[in-house]
TrEMBL record:
UniProt keyword list: DNA-binding
DNA-binding region: 34-53
SUPFAM superfamilies: Homeodomain-like
PROSITE patterns: HTH_TETR_2 (PS50977)
Alphabetized Gene3D superfamilies for the sequence: Tetracycline Repressor, domain 2
Protein known as: TetR family transcriptional regulator
InterPro entries linked: AlkX_C, Homeodomain-like_sf, HTH-type_TetR-like_transc_reg, HTH_TetR
Native organism: Actinomycetospora endophytica
Keyword hit for Translocase: no
Origin superkingdom: Bacteria
Residue intervals of the HTH tetR-type domain: 11-71
One family name in Pfam for this protein: TetR_C_35
Amino acid sequence: MTNPYRDSARRLMRDAALDVAADEVLAHGWDGLQMRAVATRIGVSRQTLYNAFGDKHGLAHALIMRLLDRFLDGVDAAIARESSLRDRWEATVRFVLEAAVSEPLLRAVLTGTSSDEFLPLLTSDGGPLVTRARDHVVASMITHHPDLDPAPLAEVAESITRLVISHVVLPLHAPQEVAGHLADLAVADTRVRSH
């Protein structure tokens, strides 16, 4: 049986810990982040923090997933602003690539001393991130295009998600150019076209 007050307090504590951890990573890098410092700043014991996240790797995972959720909120807004399926794919990719450039925590993940701990959460250990992004994009697209078949749409969404991550990690071209190209790829599969 769940206790709504305890659950709410736990969520507030987790959010506060993630806010502080993000500040600490930006100020001191991943190596400078100490669970003890986070616990002290939010007024809980280290054991409470370990119970919530497991360890520093769990804290890193939680930071990345919270950042993903913020990106997905922006994706929803980008999708809602457009009318055609292709334009929605283009807006989705463009939003993520443009937002990635200006997101300080993501920059720290990709370029700073934090990269050894965080980067696998986007790449080799990125399964949970890819799955959440894929499922979210599928649900958002189907909201606007209910005639789409979810199974092939999920395949396309996963491929586009993986390609977007690749472009975030190693940006070689302008976001607008990449967005147009990936949008063309997304609608090339005739199984994923709205009727």
